[in-house]
């Protein structure tokens, strides 16, 4: 079972009981704007996604998505590693009511070395829309280097993006 602990957080595997929290965390405005394919309009949609993601835990093909919980058990979001052709991309989302507390940075910093070792990679990509200042700040705080800023593919559309790379130690 995958489990990471930081000073304030637990990163672990999804369970079916988390469907309502996943649904609610997905509904905030930033998630709708920046990753609309990760919005779950119903608890049932969230439950189906949790079932699919849980089935990925036994392998290293991905996507590898893990809920982020506070030490008191509140489900506040997720971190993930997703294969993209020859590369892997990190992703993360912290629900709106929990933002501004450094949780995303704390989770990504803890997650990167562990997941990169597990899947056997030395570089992790991070991509976000150019106007997603919060996501850019998280990547920069986590040691990612900006490699590209301009028009690129983002969820099947040409958009202004930033592409970052993290090189493990």
Concise overview:
The protein is of the alpha+beta class and 169 residues long. It has 5 helices and 8 strands; from the N terminus they run ββαααβββαβαββ.
Keywords for this structure?
169 residues, 5 helices, alpha+beta, five-stranded antiparallel beta sheet
CATH superfamily: Gcn5-related N-acetyltransferase (GNAT)
Low-confidence stretches: none
Quote the beta fraction. 25-35%
Rounded mean pLDDT is 94
Q: Any idea what the shape is?
A: globular
What is the topology, as strand order, of the major beta sheet?
Answer: 1-2-3-4-5
Number of domains: 1
Q: What is the end-to-end distance?
A: 25 Å
Order of helices and strands: EEHHHEEEHEHEE
CATH topology value: Aminopeptidase
Task: Please report the first level of CATH classification, the CATH class.
Answer: Alpha Beta
Biggest sheet overview = 5 strands, antiparallel
- Round the Cα radius of gyration to an integer and report it: 15 Å
What percent of residues adopt helix (DSSP H or I)? 25-40%
Number of helices: 5
Counting helices, strands and paired strands, the structural category is: alpha+beta
Task: Give the name of the CATH architecture.
Answer: 3-Layer(aba) Sandwich
Give a written overview of the molecule.
The protein is globular. The chain is built from five helices and eight strands; from the N terminus they run ββαααβββαβαββ. It has one domain: Aminopeptidase (3-Layer(aba) Sandwich). The protein is of the alpha+beta class. It starts with a strand and ends with a strand. The protein has helices at residues 19-26, 29-34, 43-55, 103-119, 133-141; strands at 4-5, 9-11, 64-70, 75-84, 87-94, 123-129, 145-154, 157-167.
């Amino acid at each position: 079972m995958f489990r990471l602990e930081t000073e304030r957080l637990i990163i672990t595997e999804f369970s079916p009981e988390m469907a309502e929290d996943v649904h609610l965390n997905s509904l905030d405005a930033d998630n709708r704007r920046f990753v609309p394919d990760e919005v779950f309009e119903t608890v049932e949609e969230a439950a189906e996604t949790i079932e699919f993601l849980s089935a990925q835990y036994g392998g290293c093909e991905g996507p590898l998505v893990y809920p982020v919980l506070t030490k008191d058990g509140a489900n506040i979001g997720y971190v993930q590693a997703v294969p993209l052709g020859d590369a892997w991309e990190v992703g993360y989302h912290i629900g709106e009511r929990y933002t501004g507390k450094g949780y995303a940075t704390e989770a990504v910093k803890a997650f990167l070395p562990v997941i990169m070792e597990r899947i056997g990679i030395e570089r992790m990509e991070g991509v976000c829309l150019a106007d997603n200042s919060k996501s850019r700040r998280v990547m920069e705080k986590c040691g990612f280097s900006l490699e590209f800023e301009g028009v690129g593919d983002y969820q099947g559309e040409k958009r202004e993006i930033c592409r970052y790379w993290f090189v493990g130690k």
